[in-house]
Structure formats: structure tokens, C-alpha cells
Amino acid sequence: MRRFALIAVPYAWLLALFLVPFLIVFKISLSDIALAIPPYTPTVKDGFSALIQGLDFENFVFLTTDDLYYKAYLSSLQIALISTLLTLFVGYPIAYAMARAPQEWRATLMMLVILPFWTSFLIRVYAWIGILSNEGFLNQFLLWTGMISDPLTILNTNTAVYIGIVYTYLPFMILPIYAALERMDDSLIEAAEDLGCSRLTAFWLVTIPLSRNGIIAGCFLVFIPALGEFVIPSLLGGSGTLMIGKVLFEEFFNNRDWPVASAVAVILLLILIIPIVLFQRNQQKQAEAEA
Amino acid sequence: MSTPVFAPWNDPNETPLIRFKGVTKRFGDFTAIDDLTQDIYAKEFFALLGPSGCGKTTMMRMLAGFETVTKGRIELAGQDIAAVPPNQRAVNMMFQSYALFPHLSVYENIAFGLRRDKLPKDKIDARVAEMLKLTRLEKFARRKPHQISGGQRQRVALARSLAKGPKLLLLDEPLGALDKKLRQETQFELMDIQETTGTTFVIVTHDQEEAMTVASRVAVMDEGRIIQVATPDGIYETPNSVYVADFIGDVNIISGTAKANGKDQYFVDWGVNQAPILAHSERPFSEGQECHLAIRPEKISITKEKPEEAENAVQGKVLDIAYLGNLSTYHVELPGGQIIKAQTANTRRLSRRGITWEDPVWIRWNATAGVLLEH
């Protein structure tokens, strides 16, 4: 009984804060737009049978007629994938260096990785505007060194979005990789060298496979939120940056088309379910391997 | 017909496989190895024995190539190995933690070194099968390291380090993680494997019993120096210093001054109102020189009555009895307050034991029972 109560708490939490809102969004996605409050029809007030009869998949069909949507989905996938890879390439060496650092430094280094979280995410993204804009710090510095003669246009391009995503999600990549590398026994590398590996092959054959779970966890932790990212592309991206989070926002607040916005959200969720399930399976496998 | 005794270190015509020549290793200010010179011969089972921090692991890691030599040179088969990186040395190491690759199966762990040599697949298969057979692991080839027991993991580590057929195998506390019973069985297994493969083994251990059991020669180390190198019985019966005598097994040390008494015989004056002890020694001592007599407890016998015709006999009182099952150790307090340990084998049942606490007893030993040491 007590065990049941214990399990019931997280389930109740998920039910109230995830499943119920999702069902509401799903219901709205099946409704029609209306000039009313709330801006869709039918609602519960119309009675149950009218409610059921009024629902259809019209909005989902609509998403297929306008290529804006599938382009936005594809572009989001592309941006999320590329930025996940970039984060991995930046994060892995950092995590590796942290795990190899002297024991007494590690806590400090860990602190430095987590430190940015103490400032609001929004403020940090705004700060990047100041760095990347045409009159920003970066351009001023490069002009001062004489490396460029005209300011680079970085802000309001996809490059700025990549920089923003890599910067924001880097800790999520570093921490799981660091956790995997830190647990690794140093004598494994020595054993590999002893058996005839060069430093590089030892890294490739031992270090990488042993940090695999950390790499996978880190990639999912970056990819999943990056896919639906809204703040970074809308602040740092330009008119050419097409991301589904931005489309969603525009449908919802600019067009006030709640049903279409909801349909976009439902599809986004369906796309995300695949990596989330894969991520869960990886975590589970890892837990089993350690047991 | 008797088989010749394996003792290449006594044969001046033998060339050693490994030569340490004035090797010094410093870590910052700390001297881990201090001007060490030592030869190790092919097919030897050479044990480095000493307390932690004595430099034995450093010596091994220099052989493996994980540490550089600060001064002096190490030769392997006549070649200076300073410039050879660990992955190109004909030396393999079995790590204390075993360092098995957790993501690879037992088979792949053993094949790891062979694959680096780009051997053809059938050669690798044959060699791994041979190693699995040698270490009796055939049934576990497909398992991952976390799916087998500690003893099996130890054997995988051994098989992996032997797979490449090294000239020299280094074993860093190879049995440290096993429980006592398994450790004893494995010691004999190690000796068998060493004999079948004919590989030179250098083992690092802090367990004197292990070193004595497996090794052909034992080097007792302290503070970066080798104090004595000898066969196990040589180390035990004729230690060259109080340190070695004390480090290996149990010993009584009686300090005094030497007085010559004919050829190779000395009297040791060791206390006021005590008859001098007669001791045999081939090592010469000058008149009045300070000396230490080391006697193993099992070489001292204990009786209730005063023994007749004993070369050395002292009266005392039983202070403590340690009953070990097969043996009993008596702690006998002498009138001067010194405590001497005497050991007897319990060949009779306990109920027949005649000596108990506080009993006045006589302890006796022969002149040849102990070793007379300078320091």
C-alpha cells in the first residue's frame, strides 16, 4: 500500500501536468478557429455530442497543404542535429579535460560549467546580441586586430542560432560525458597501450566506447530541447531562420489560430517521442549494465 | 638422475634478460628508486616485496614504460629500453585492478593485443583458444567482464597479458583482490602457467607469503633500495639485516656485543646477569662489535624442566599463548623484561598441553638456530 502511494505521486504528477494538458492541446488541434473566447469551436459548453461531432483532422490536413510547415520541421531538425554535433565537438574535449584535471580542481571546473545557470537564460541570450551584432564586441575586436575591414554579419543568421544553441546547451553535453569519463579507470588506457595501442587508438578503442552512454545522453539532452527551441532563433536568428518553435509562436500569438498552433505542437511532440523513447532505452540499458 | 636446480643467477655464463644499471627515479623531491642495480634472468619468477611506498611499483612501471628513468639505464635483452614506448615493448603487464575492458567480451579482451599486431583472423582465433584453455576460461569466452567472478576476471587479465607471448610479464599485486583461499590456489596456478609458458615473470607484492610461495628469487625493498635478493629459503633462513629478518615472518631479535669463541663461534653478551648466548656465524665480527641475533620462533623449543646439555637455555615465564590451531606461539618473558617468542607444532591434542599462563619455563635453542647480523 505504501509502495503504491509512493509510485502514485509521480504518476499523479505526470497525469495532471503532462497528460491532461496534452489532451487539451490535442482536443484544440481537432477544433476549428472561431472569433470567440476561447478562440476555437466547439467547446465543452456546446454539449458532448456536438463536441464530438465538431472535431476533425482538418488542421493536420492543412499543415500538409502549406509547405511552410514541413520546411519548418525539416529546418528545425537540421538545426537541432547540426547544433547537437557542434555541442558534442565542443563539449567532449572540455569534459575530457575536466575528467583528466587534478582531483582538487574538478569541483571548481564543474562549478564553472554550471555557473551560467545562475543568470537568467534570457539575459544570457540577449548578451549574445551585444556580442554578435554589427557594432558588437566581436566585430569591434576583429576590426581592432585588423583581421577584417568590414564588420561580419553574424547576428540574425543561422550562425548566430548555432552559436546560441551550442552556448546554451553546452553544460547538458559536458555533464553526462564528464560523469562517464570520470568513472573510467585510468589503468584501462595504460592496459591498451601496454597491449600495443598508440595514444590515439587507445582513445578510439577504449575511451570513446566507454563514454558512449555519456555521449548518447548528452546528445539527447541537447537535441530534444533544441528541436523545439523558440527563444534563441527569435532573438538571434533572422527572417531566414525557420524553426518550428517560431512558427508555433506566430500561429498562436500573431495569427491567434489556436487549433493550427495546437496541431503544430502535437506533430512536434510526435517527432520528439522517437528520440525520447530512444533516450529512455539508453538510460535503462545503462542502469542494467551497472546493476 | 636429478634435475639441475634452476639458479641462473649463480652461473657467470648466463646473460640476464633484464639489467637495472644504477637506476634512479625521482618524482619532484621524492626519490622513489635510489641508484638501483639488479639483474633478472630469463624464465625467472622474480618477486619485488616491500611495504607500500618502497618503490616496487615504480620499478615495475619503469619496466612497462609508464615511467621514465631519471638516471641510469634499464636493459631488456641487451637493449636500452628508455626510448621504446610502452606499446612497442615486448613486455606485458597484468594490472592490479585487472583493467579489463568492460565493453568487450572475455574473448575480445584476450584478442585485443593480437588485433593490434594485425594478425590474420585464424591465428588470433587459435591463440585466444590456447589462452582460454590455459586459464580454463573456455566456457566464458562470450561473457562480459561484469558477468564473471573475481577469480575468473583475474584469469582473463592473465590470459590477456600472456596472449602476445611477451618476453617479460609484469604482475602488479595480481592476487590482491582475491580472498585467502582462492589466492592460495591461484598462486600454484600462476607457478604452473609460468612454468608451461616459460615466460619471465616479475611480480610486485606486499604479501610476503605470496612472494615466498611463487618466486624463484625474492627482492626485499625499502625506501627505493633493494635490501636483499635471495631465494625464498635464503631470505627466510639467512637474512642479511634485521629489516629483512623482521619483514619476512616472525622473528626474535636479541641485541648485544660479540665475543669470539673459536672458529665461526661467538658469544653474545646481551644483558646484565645473563649468561652469554652462543651463536654460530660465518660472517666475521670483531671483538666487542654490536650485533643482533635473529632467531625464528619455531627454532626455539620450550620445556617445563631445565634442559640438559643445551647450547643456549634461558628461564622465563609464560606471558601469552597464541593458539593458531596447527601451531602455538608462547610469549615468554625473561627476567630482564625481554619477550621471546617460541613456537611449537601442536602434534598432540590441546587437552594434553602441559604449559599454561604464568608457568615458569625454559626456552632453548642451538648455536646454529639463529643468524648473527650487523645491522
Characterize the structure shown.
The complex is a heterodimer of chains A (291) and B (375). By secondary structure, chain A is mainly α. Chain A has 14 helices and two strands; from the N terminus they run αββααααααααααααα. Chain A has helices spanning 2-29, 48-54, 58-65, 67-100, 103-114, 121-132, 137-145, 158-183, 187-194, 199-210, 212-227, 231-236, 244-254, 258-290; strands at residues 32-33, 40-41. A two-stranded antiparallel sheet of chain A has the order 1-2. In chain A, strand 1 (32-33) and strand 2 form a beta hairpin. Helices cover 22% and strands 33% of the residues of chain B. At the A-B interface, helix 9 and helix 10 of A face strand 6 and helix 2 of B.
Structure described in brief:
The complex is a heterodimer of chains A (291) and B (375). By secondary structure, chain A is mainly α.
Largest interface, C-beta within 8 A? A-B, 18 and 25 residues
Strand order of the largest sheet of chain B: 6-7-8-3-9-10
Q: In which order are the strands of the major sheet of chain A placed?
A: 1-2
> How far apart are the first and last residues' alpha carbons of chain B, in Å?
42 Å
Low-confidence stretches of chain B: none
Mean pLDDT level of chain B = 89
Low-confidence stretches of chain A: none
Number of E-state strands of chain A: 2
Shape, principal axes of CA atoms of chain B: elongated
